[in-house]
Design goal:
Number of strands: 10
Radius of gyration: 20 Å
Strand content: 15-25%
Helix content: 40-55%
Length: 309
């Protein structure tokens, strides 16, 4: 596998593949060392639409031009494409960047300035916003989902039941996205990381697409504000001072955050019910439990609003 990837991307020298060094819901990342240095190799668990997952290249290059630190994309040696299939496995290759572990306690001003640069780099778009970022789940579906996991004796059924009323209430904020631009749309702490020398690095642009910059800003305020008004205020001020176009002024600006919570919760629960192995169920249960451990609720939204308005 190491030699096949190196050959496909024109990387010379004896290749050594190690890892995986990181894992997400759809794939995992390996480290590839060759005579041309180190690279990150993303492997998908199931082959995606390779053209679709390669569509982030323009946004990555625009972000780099705006000063965002993000791994540059390596293209294949023969056709110059971003993603390809090697030995039946879909892969793509990036520049390697030494990163620290996930944390929501990054320097909030640095995160705000980075988000502003991402938004300055982003073009406007007339495309519609996906439901994943724009719609809730609805009271009846939440209650039906709770009964379903309860009937299957899911270990997190009680946590979901205790949270249903708040999950329903927070969906009252949902409103349409205004003036979408091409956003990253996956700026959780897994994808905004510190380098070994303390700079902010953004990874994994594959979920990019239309979104209101104010809504993406609200999501980042929640994630990296970490329920601390001073952190949220510092992030918002740095974003504004760096020329970011978004502004968070009302509950509706948290639509994307609320919608993602709903769809992640539904997906984790549904996949848990249909999982074929105990290890997969354990992984999906951990994924779902990230919600009751850190729920998006109306009081938490209001605390962020009070800090930045």
């Amino acid at each position: 596998m190491a030699q096949e990837v190196a050959d496909a991307y024109g990387l010379t020298g004896t290749p050594v593949l190690s890892g995986p060094v990181a894992r997400g819901q759809l794939g995992q990342v390996w480290r590839l060392d060759t005579g041309q240095g180190s690279h990150a190799v993303k492997e998908w668990f199931a082959t995606p639409d390779l053209e679709e997952v390669s569509g982030d290249a323009d946004l990555v290059e625009a972000a780099l031009a705006e000063g965002v630190l993000t791994p540059s994309i390596v293209r294949t040696a023969d056709t110059g494409v971003v993603a390809t299939t090697v030995g039946g496995t879909a892969v793509r290759v990036f520049e390697w960047v030494d990163l620290r572990g996930r944390t929501r306690r990054l320097d909030p001003a640095a995160v705000g300035a980075t988000l502003a640069a991402l938004h300055r780099a982003a073009p406007a778009t007339g495309e519609s916003v996906d439901n994943w970022f724009a719609t809730g789940f609805g009271e009846q579906r939440w209650r039906d989902l709770h009964r379903r996991v309860q009937g299957e004796r899911a270990p997190f059924a009680d946590q979901l039941g205790a949270l249903v009323d708040e999950l329903v209430a927070v969906e009252s904020v949902i409103e349409p996205h205004e003036s979408p631009i091409v956003c990253h749309r996956d700026l959780w702490a897994d994808n905004v990381l510190a380098t070994d020398d303390g700079r902010i690095c953004v990874v994994d642009f594959e979920n990019h697409g239309p979104a209101d910059p104010s809504q993406e800003l609200a999501m980042v305020l929640f994630e990296f504000g970490d329920d601390d008004p001073a952190r949220a205020r510092a992030l918002h001020t740095a974003y504004r001072d760096a020329g970011g176009p978004g502004r968070v002024t009302r509950r509706g600006h948290f639509t994307m955050l609320v919608a993602e919570q709903a769809h992640i919760g539904q997906l984790a629960c549904s996949r848990w019910v249909g999982a074929s192995s105990e290890s997969e169920r354990e992984r999906l249960a951990r994924w779902f439990l990230e919600i009751p451990d850190d729920p998006v609720t109306l009081p938490r939204i209001d605390r962020v609003l009070a800090a930045v308005t």
